[in-house]
Model the fold of this input.
Amino acid sequence: GTGEALQVHIICFNFETVRVTWNVSEPSGENLTFFYTFDSGEAYGQCTHYILRRGLTAGCILDFQDQVLHFSIRNATHALFTHSQWASFYLKPGAPRNLSFQWQQEKVAVTCPGLAHGGLLYEVQLRSNFDAAWQSKEEETCNVHIEGLDAEKCYCLRARVKTTEAAYGPDSYPGDWSEVSCWYGGLPSDLCPDVPISPGFPRFILICS
Amino acid sequence: GESGYAQNGDLEDAELDDYYSFSCYSQLEVNRSHHSLTCTFDDPDINSTNLELEICGALLEINCLNFTKLQEVYYIKTKKFLLIGDSEICVKLGEKSITCKKMNIVKIVKPEAPFNISVVYREGANDFVVTFNTSHLQKKYVKNLMHDVAYRQEKVENNWMHVNLSSTKLTLLQRKLQDDAMYEIKVRSIPYSSDYFEGFWSEWSPSYHFRTPETKRAE
Amino acid sequence: YNFTDCDFEKIKQKYQKTIYNDLKEYMNGAKSTQFNSTVSCNNKSDCLAEIERLTFSAPRGCAPLAREAFALRTRATFALQCPGYSRTQTNNTQAAKKTKEREITTKKCLEQVSQLLGLWGRFCRTLWKR
Done:
């Protein structure tokens, strides 16, 4: 974008809302205004849902459209910052909802309702109570199968949605992790029993609900 | 016996195709951003002295490329593969094309062999963690591979067990292996089935040998 | 050319596996989000039409992009996956041949390629697997 000393931060939450926030390097105490449009052919409209910080406008929340967001941040006399970019390029997907786990001897299938947008990856991470690090697997749909497991071990799993750069550009964000859920012998377990693991491994208690 | 096209000019087209049949595989980014294409005649006894190979089509900015011949292997190293659509590879005797074959570079990919396979025993977990490495993790094009880990108890001929996986780490359960026994393990790779790139198995990695502990966990 | 009958999934695959690498390489480290997006599209065929226009047109201050690897691959992809596309292309290829040297990559060229990354991104997002 173009503009004077204004740090602008954009994040698009799960294809639902876009939040644009700004920081003025040398605050002058004046209220800035935010004008935008998703259609370059139309006139800009003013923000209808400002974010305030210490009584001054500090951001705007607007509904998402998978289009180029054209916006301008102005003071009383001129535009301080103008920018045009695909709103999706600042996407942060939400955590996967309604995860389901199907266990079968030495494998698990993790599924959930996928998002109605292309270019996403669904990542599942799994760790037994003997593993120091998570093991990852990704698929283009929310249907991830992990094999080679030990029915006698306890496993914890979590999932998240990631963007691909080809579809969402270099500035998008990985989604938040789902809650961790733990399983023993294919049955839900509050947490995996602690086992003496090599000293380098951080000891912490996983709370699974 | 040996016979070349010149001495045996009366072969029918179908017989020519059969007689001069050849196979090829490609390796993408095998040398930084250079790709390679390797072809050999299926009949090792063929007299290929005057025979050349040429590829045309699905090339960047040029129409055709000639193979270099190293003993009985025909080889190209280039950045010019379009990686979209079919090419035509022809066996040529001078300027005359004897037989041609349609090939798609991205469908005949042979990955580089995996390496650095190693096995770590985890006493508490009663399992063996197998890890290995592949140069394809750093590549731009052929990144998605399926790996075939094969292991067997030594001195038990051809009793290989196989595990297919897409990651480079797996665990073998102690209770599924013999106690106090020597095992051999190796791995190879093939382009992931549903990916854009398809092709053949790589060579096997060098084998790794490990011994299972004497005492098994109390049942 | 009307792109509605193209095989969109195959085009997306060829973009993600080949063309995208070329566009990134062309940007040579410059981030596409550095540039304002001035072009957009709404649906699959609309996006392909805009992509074709930008790929094969010669913007002011930038040598025609048609000789770049991403353009050659884009043309090959459309020829393969869009029925009848090749027949509409004879004169465009002649235009590409006339340019001799490849001028240095100017800011104008980077801006144009960043628009292409935006359009291709939108195209990819329209295609999702249930």
Observations:
- The CA atoms of residues 108 and 146 of chain A lie 5 Å apart.
- The first helix of chain A runs from residue 165 to 168.
- The longest strand of chain A covers residues 154-163.
- The interface with chain B takes residues 128, 130, 135-137, 147-148, 150, 152-153, 195-197 of chain A (CB under 8 Å).
